[in-house]
Amino acid sequence: MKKSLMALSSVLMLGSTVSAQKVEFEHYTLNNGMHVILHQDNSAPVVITSVMYHVGAKDENPERTGFAHFFEHLLFEGTKNIERGEWFKIVTGNGGTNNANTSDDRTYYYEIFPSNNLELGLWMESERLLHPVINQIGVDTQNEVVKEEKRLRVDNQPYGNILAEVKRNMFFKHPYRWATIGSMEHLDAATLEEFQAFNKKFYVPNNATLVVAGQFDPAQAKKWIDQYFGSIPKGAPITREKFVEDPITQPLRARYEDPNIQIPMAMVSYRTPSMKTRDARVLDMISTILSDGKSSRLYKKMVDEMKMALQIGAFNFSQEDYGLYILYGLPMGSNTPNDMIAEFDKEIVKLQTELISEKEYQKLQNIYESQYVDSNSSVEGIAGNLATFHMLYGDVNLINTEIEIYRSITKEEIRDVAKKYLNPNQRLIMDYVPKSDKAQN
């Protein structure tokens, strides 16, 4: 479901450039506004049915955070024609698997079946959309499930609150300021009617993208899609308020005491633009230069040579409206978080004042070619990419063309984007320390 913070900066790295075949697809929109994308792949006898809804944590009432993630669980409870507790039995009993995940921007559900079960997958997803049973039993059950997930993944997880604390201290108007998992107090206080209203507003065909990918007959798939989804009524148009953050012009400082850690973490973060922008892709590349692999600048310097860090990372956490560029590390020995931040700054200044070498530039190209191939190496990956590029980027064909953007990024752009966003007066320094540690870092 969610990647740990420490894993966000890890990517597959190969030494030579590889290429991928163009992803072929067909897409159209039903009369009720549901967008449909079909990708045929006969290399294996499997088929994926997935639905992405344009609803995430940012669409919640500030007094009812956690609804979007809660629905990720709640909508497996059952439907008018699928009894409570039967969803997973039907899937596994027919040789399939399923899952779902939530972000601040969208919620995604999918089933993977043997190819002869496409109709079953479509029927189940249409049931989730048209006939969900949202009752007090289901709400109470999933409330306990979500609480346990929060305990395991956040409350009792070392460094589990890092991203939530960074967001809380870098967004002041935008709903990105709260954690995706939300507040348990808000969920406890919510009424059944509030959950039902949330479903009625956001779980409508005109707020959804359906993807079918794998081995299937397109003509038959279209008939089933029209049969199961075509008659679902269109929902009321969804209007979203646009939240614009004021620029950060003075350094921010925050402190968080984590009872689950013994080593303080060095952490700095910069607010960055939407993932749809070219600059966001350049920031991706800057992350790769700094911390992707043992030959990256920060790892080689701070872990191998200076031996001042147990772990180091830089990543561009970009989303639909804004992003965060985060650098973090665990100090070793007598080194402090401030010592590490000083080294971060030195490497950023180098990026801002010197062009990267031709060798580094070619390495970047190889890495992004490899990532592109890897992201489209499975039908499951392609299905998710097709839905994401359509819903969040507004261009489904980016599945084929986004790599051209990365290929066209120049050394000069890398320097200029580092100058534009990664400056001391534009950032948050987070003192992320053990709960018992009252000393200055």
UniProtKB/TrEMBL annotation:
Record-annotated Peptidase M16 N-terminal domain positions: 36-158
Record GO terms (molecular function): metal ion binding; metallopeptidase activity
Keywords, ordered alphabetically: Hydrolase, Metalloprotease, Protease, Signal, Zinc
One Pfam family, short name: Peptidase_M16
GO biological process, one term: proteolysis
Residues spanning the signal sequence: 1-20
Domain Peptidase M16 C-terminal: 190-367
Family: Belongs to the peptidase M16 family.
Protein name: Peptidase M16
Species whose genome carries this gene: Flavobacterium orientale
